[in-house]
Write a sequence for this structure.
């Protein structure tokens, strides 16, 4: 009998193990034997320790890597919350599939395979490389109704989990989260208000580039979404279903699945971090498998990252999404692993210790 989405989610969470402390200690000992003052490579050292704790290896080969771009539409677009129309979502999906989006370029530079999933685009899409896993064609308008049912939220999480299992079985060892969905900074801001306790004004940013007047309107819409739906802060799936998004739910699954399969998962910007927060609230044991990539220019990202317990690797003033920041972050993970593999030790180089 096929497992229900609820079982898939529960089994996945139950499988998440703590990091390998012995491997972390071995990485720490190796880092301290290298020709540098202890700790002087900062976050590169933290990444090396984390990668060791996840993989159980001193310097794992993480060349098999994928960015998973979940695409879904948002009913709340009818409230005028984005600078761009909803049709851009399917149009960008086709752009990902033909290799022309920013994330494609950055993925190619880091040897990353891109998988694009239609988990909820409000248009019929067919393409040989598109993973068609539509749970429903777009969410409900959260200013008036729930984004989706609880069952649909669980189904979308299960889509992400099952994809990670499939890719992990095919040899992928590291994942990046990516998304496309016009209107999804509104849903992400609503998640921040519901789960972090930020005010709508703190959580709402400019998204694709609205002006301050439209941002004020977006704040009101987010507040209305919370007043209408009354999500329960104690129940992350309730929050996801009532004010979230299908692509956000899919990414919750990607993150939980990565943790269950002991894969490092690099979290992109504001929207991906909203998914990371839901995953963290469902399964705090998944947090050690996550790495924050960059600090998005989107207002609220810094508080959101802190709520998950992540510290971004880079500050590039980016505010695009798609997985761009996460894939860029792969360069730094590669840098950390090269240090582990190639640097001389005090002993091998004949350098005196302090
Ligand atoms: C051409 C284009 C490409 C994008 N790639 C990612 N996003 C980003 O912008 C959207 C969120 O912003 P908002 O909530 O303001 O709509 C998401 O689709 C996100 O991935 C894009 C947006 C546009 C216009
Ligand atoms: O940080 C992000 O992910 C982001 C910010 C603005 C618009 N789209 C994505």
């Amino acid at each position: 009998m096929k497992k229900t989405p609820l079982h898939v989610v529960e089994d996945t969470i139950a499988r998440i193990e703590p990091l390998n402390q012995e491997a972390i200690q071995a990485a720490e000992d190796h880092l301290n034997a290298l020709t540098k003052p202890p700790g002087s490579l900062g976050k590169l050292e933290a990444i090396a320790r984390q990668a060791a704790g996840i993989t159980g290896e001193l310097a794992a080969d993480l060349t098999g890597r994928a960015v998973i771009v979940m695409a879904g539409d948002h009913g709340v677009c009818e409230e005028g919350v984005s600078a761009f129309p909803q049709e851009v979502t399917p149009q960008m999906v086709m752009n990902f599939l033909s290799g022309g989006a920013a994330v494609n370029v950055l993925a190619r530079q880091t040897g990353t395979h891109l998988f694009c999933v239609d988990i909820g685009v409000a248009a019929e899409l067919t393409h040989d490389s598109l993973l068609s896993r539509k749970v429903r064609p777009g969410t409900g308008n959260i200013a008036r109704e729930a984004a989706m049912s609880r069952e649909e939220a669980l189904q979308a999480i299960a889509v992400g989990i099952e994809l990670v299992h499939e890719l992990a079985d095919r040899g992928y060892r590291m994942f990046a989260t990516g998304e496309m969905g016009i209107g999804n900074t509104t849903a992400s801001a609503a998640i921040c208000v519901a789960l972090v306790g930020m005010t709508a004004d703190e959580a709402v940013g400019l998204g694709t580039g609205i002006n301050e007047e439209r941002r004020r309107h977006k704040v009101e819409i987010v507040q209305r979404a919370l007043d209408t739906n009354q999500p329960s802060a104690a129940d992350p799936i309730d929050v996801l279903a009532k004010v979230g998004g299908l692509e956000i739910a899919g990414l919750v699954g990607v993150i939980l699945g990565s943790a269950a399969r002991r894969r490092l998962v690099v979290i992109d910007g504001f929207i991906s971090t909203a998914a990371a927060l839901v995953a963290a609230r469902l399964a705090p044991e998944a947090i050690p498998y996550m790495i924050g990539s960059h600090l998005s220019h989107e207002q609220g990202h810094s508080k959101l990252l802190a709520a998950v317990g992540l510290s971004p690797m880079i500050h590039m003033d980016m505010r695009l999404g798609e997985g761009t920041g996460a894939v860029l972050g792969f360069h730094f993970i590669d840098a950390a692993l090269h240090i582990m593999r190639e640097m001389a030790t005090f002993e091998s180089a004949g350098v005196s210790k302090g």
